[in-house]
Design a protein that fits this description.
The complex is a heterodimer of chains A (225) and B (83). Chain A is α/β, with parallel strands linked by helices. Chain A is built from five helices and eleven strands. The longest helix of chain B is centred in the C-terminal third of the chain and has 16 residues, at 53-68. Helix content of chain B is 34%, strand content 33%. Classes of the chains: A alpha/beta (225), B alpha+beta (83). Chain A binds chain B through residues 56-57, 60-61, 64, 92-93, 99-100, 102-107, 147-149, 181, and chain B through 15-16, 18-19, 21-22, 42, 67-68, 70, 72-73.
C-alpha cells in the first residue's frame, strides 16, 4: 500500500508518520499542500501539527489548501483517508467527518499520555485491536473536545462510527479519564462509509521501541494487516 | 463602491465556552461580581469592493458561511457600512 502524508505549513508530525509507515514495510511519500496530485497513493494521512498556525479555527484554512480538492475527491470515491490530531480537525472542517473539535474544557493545551480503548472492531484501524485493552497513547492539543449535536451523536452510535474512547488504565470509560471534555469520551470516529478516520491521540508518537511505548504501533499496524 | 463589514462570530449559546468561563472567574477575582456570564467570540473586519450593498451583503454572508464561521459551533452577524 502506498501512503501519502500531506504537509501543510505548520504540520509537525509528518516525519513521525512517514517513519512509522516505513517501519511497517510500506511506502510513504510526503504531499506538499500546494500540489494537487496525490501521486497514486492508496491511503492519505493528514498529520498532526498546527496548520496555518491554527489561525481562525484549527484546520479551517488548511481545509482549503490546493491539494484538498483531490483529497476530498479521493475520500468521496471511497479511498482511505485518516486525520490525526490537527488532521482530524481539518477533516471536520472539511465536513468529511461529522461534528467539531472545540477548545478543551480546561482551557489548557494538554500534552500527556492518556489511555485509549477501541470501541469496535468494525473499522480498518480497529479491526483486530483488543476491545478490553487500554492503549497508552499521547495527546497534544488545545482543541480536542469532540462535540456534535444529538442527532449526529445518535447516528454515530447507530452506525458504529465511534472508534476510540478515552479511558483509564484499566479500560474504564469515565469522566475522570476524559482529558478534554469530549462528549461520551469520544477520541476517534469514522464516517458512515468507514473509509475516513479521525482521531485526536497520536499513535505515531508511540511507535518506536526506543521510546519505550509501542502501543501506537499496534494501532497503526491495523492499517496494513 | 467600497464597504466595511464588521462581523461578529460567537460560539453558539448551547456550547460551553471555557474561555468566557475563565474570564468570568477572573472578573470575580477582581471583585467584579455583577457579571453573570461572559462569552468570547471574534470580531472580523472586511473591506469589500462591490457594486451594491446587496452584493456586498452576499459576499460577506458567503465568506462567513464558507470560512469565517463554523456553523456547527458558531453563529455570526455583521453590519455593513459604505466607506
Amino acid at each position: 500500500m502506498k501512503f501519502g502524508v500531506v504537509v501543510f505549513p505548520g504540520s509537525n508530525c509528518d516525519d513521525d508518520t512517514v517513519g512509522v509507515i516505513e517501519s511497517l514495510g510500506h511506502q510513504a511519500v510526503k504531499l506538499w499542500h500546494k500540489e494537487t496530485s496525490l501521486q497514486n497513493c492508496d491511503f492519505i494521512i493528514l498529520p498532526g501539527g498546527f496548520s496555518y498556525g491554527d489561525y481562525l479555527r484549527s484546520g479551517a484554512i488548511a481545509r482549503f489548501s490546493p491539494i484538498m480538492d483531490n483529497v476530498i475527491k479521493h475520500a468521496n470515491d471511497g479511498g482511505y483517508l485518516m486525520g490525526i490530531c490537527n488532521g482530524f480537525q481539518v477533516l471536520v472542517e472539511a465536513h468529511l467527518l461529522p461534528g467539531v473539535l472545540l477548545r478543551n474544557n480546561s482551557q489548557k493545551f494538554i500534552s500527556k499520555n492518556i489511555y485509549l480503548k477501541a470501541a469496535t472492531n468494525q473499522s480498518l484501524i480497529t479491526q483486530s485491536l483488543d476491545l478490553n485493552n487500554a492503549y497508552k497513547i499521547p495527546i497534544a492539543h488545545a482543541e480536542g473536545r469532540y462535540f456534535a449535536d444529538e442527532k449526529t451523536l445518535e447516528d454515530l452510535k447507530a452506525n458504529d462510527q465511534i472508534l476510540f474512547y478515552y479511558c483509564d488504565e484499566n479500560g474504564q470509560v469515565n469522566d475522570a479519564a476524559n482529558p478534554n471534555g469530549s462528549l461520551f469520551n469520544i477520541a476517534g470516529i469514522c464516517n458512515a462509509g468507514r473509509n475516513v478516520i479521525g482521531m485526536m491521540p497520536h499513535p505515531e508518537r508511540a511507535a518506536d521501541p526506543d521510546l519505550a511505548n509501542i502501543d501506537g504501533l499496534e494501532i497503526l499496524k491495523q492499517l496494513v494487516l | 463602491m467600497k464597504f466595511l463589514a464588521e462581523i461578529n462570530v460567537m460560539p453558539q449559546k448551547e456550547i460551553l465556552d471555557p474561555q468566557g468561563k475563565a474570564v468570568r472567574i477572573g472578573l470575580q477575582n477582581l471583585d467584579i461580581h455583577q457579571v453573570a456570564d461572559v462569552r468570547i467570540g471574534k470580531h472580523i473586519q472586511l473591506q469589500i469592493e462591490a457594486s451594491s450593498e446587496a452584493e456586498a451583503n452576499d459576499i460577506v454572508t458567503n465568506a462567513c458561511k464558507k470560512l469565517l464561521a463554523n456553523l456547527i459551533m458558531e453563529e455570526f452577524d455583521f453590519v455593513l457600512k459604505a466607506i
